[in-house]
Amino acid sequence: MGESDLLMTLLEVIKANPLAFRVFFNAAGSTLAVVTDRDHRILACNDNLARNLHLPEKPLGRFLGDILCSLEGEEGFSLLVSRQDNSLLPQIFRICYTEILFKCYTFAIEEGFLVLGDRLGGTDNEVLESMSLLNNELSGLSRELAQKNRDLEKANRKITELSRTDSLTGLANRAYFQERYQEAFNLARRHQMPLAVVMMDLDHFKHINDIYGHDAGDAVLRHFGGLVRESCRQEDFAARFGGEEFILYLPHTTIKEALSLADRLRQRLAGAAILENHYQVTASMGVAGLAPDDSPESLIKRGDQALYKAKDAGRNWVCAL
Fold it and tell me: Confidence band (pLDDT; 50, 70, 90) for 129?
């Protein structure tokens, strides 16, 4: 590995560990940069390593443990991190058999490890006192980073929720419904359990928009979405399927039970005072239950056919297939 490769490795670590860049390069007198393999054998280093160690040339191929030891004099370089868990907590080492001290940070990289260090002066007590202050600062930075990670996770959860939700009604959107419905269908088929689908469509919705305006139409959609949500058990799942059409799947539910739920929902909507002038908002609904030869698509299609049967019966009706 040449100098350019070493620089590229340093740049990769800086990109992946911005906090490491902040802690290390803000320190004065940075003098040591070493890349080792996984066995701690030196692959590359900067000129300062040989200069500070009073070596005639770079100690490539040597074990880093032959050069650095702990403050207690033990030989061997104890790495601070694994490949999965980089740490910003530094460790103090001395050049073996000397009083020259280095504050070192170690990071796992593809080749093995990257070691960055500052040469320190003063007595061991002064160094340890300095390290105590630094550790306090690092603890604060670690807490700050942890909080930012929590904030990022929260934001990601919110983004995921928004991508699955119809913004007007608060119900699931069609894409997320299809994902959950496929899982429910497979589960019902595997365990031979009942599953019902209810297709719902608001009657004369275009007329509502034309007479009362789109704001009123949105209010109707929100109100009906709320009624659907209130009618669901924990295991049920509802979505706005598109326009004024809604869909609901009901696990562990027979046709008779689904018809009863749908009719209660129809009656609640018909009895609600949503628009002025006592305009009655109604919905037609179609119910279908899982049959032995059904696919996910055919079950929904039969629910849709039942819905059109309810429309043909005069609307504000619930029919089943």
Answer: low
